[in-house]
Amino acid sequence: MDLITWGEDLVGPLVGAHRPADVLQAAASCMAEEFRSDGFRWIKSRRCFERRGQGGRVERMTLEPSRHNRSGSFVRFAVAQLHVDEPDLGDWRAANHLLTVIRPDGALDVLCATSCHDLVRVGFRNTVGLTRPETRAAHLRVLCDQIRQIVLPWFASTRDPRQLAAIVPEALLGPFDFAPDLVEYLVLRGEREQARLLIERVLEVDRKQREAFPEGRHLAGQGLVGRPHWHTPQALGWTSAVLGLC
Fold this sequence. Notes:
The chain is α+β, with helices and mostly antiparallel strands. Helix content is 42%, strand content 14%. It has nine helices and six strands, in the order ααββββαββαααααα. It has helices at residues 8-16, 20-34, 87-95, 136-156, 164-167, 179-188, 192-205, 207-220, 235-242, and strands at 41-43, 48-52, 58-65, 76-85, 110-115, 127-129. Strands 1, 2, 3, 4, 5 and 6 form a six-stranded antiparallel sheet that branches. Strand 2 and strand 3 form a beta hairpin. Helix 2 (20-34) packs across helix 4, helix 6 runs parallel beside helix 9 and helix 7 (192-205) crosses helix 8. The longest helix is centred in the middle third of the chain and has 21 residues, at 136-156. The protein starts with 7 loop residues before the first helix and ends with a helix.
């Protein structure tokens, strides 16, 4: 079966491009067409695909060219990062700053993010080689198929608060990842039982947060001075205490 499903108006520029930047732009145009029906649009200035959803939710998939790219000899890029913002969560954090960890103002909306290199463990080959013009479309098709199989479900895993505790990827639950952020999101959406279940799951799978959990809860009793920083092992215990979850 022919793997190429894009029209000549897209494949032609992809095959004919010479400079790495032009190859990337032509590839992005093919991908934009591929994921247009899923709600994504290409933001050239930020080299990312972006999708906006209910409540202002923003999902981003960022592309990154290889620093070794050279015209005519080497062209490669990677799907580098996935990122989700929830503006409602940012508003809640701004209004309830004593109930959330210390974080940069620019990160108030952040729900979760991951380097796509972390998805290699689940089979995602996040880089694509586009050096040879005659194989570019086929290689890009394989990448798009993997995005549909692995990346789109990653975004979906945090979209429904009623199921989040069970289906969120384990890679987001480590001590330097986003478990407290997800807990806050669940509380904001009125899913306190899901928040408790998520905390239980984190304590089962992550030793550092399990060991730091009592310390975090102790810090919660110290008022403002005990407020921890974002992405620290104590944050989950502190968050569970100030939000009245355990």
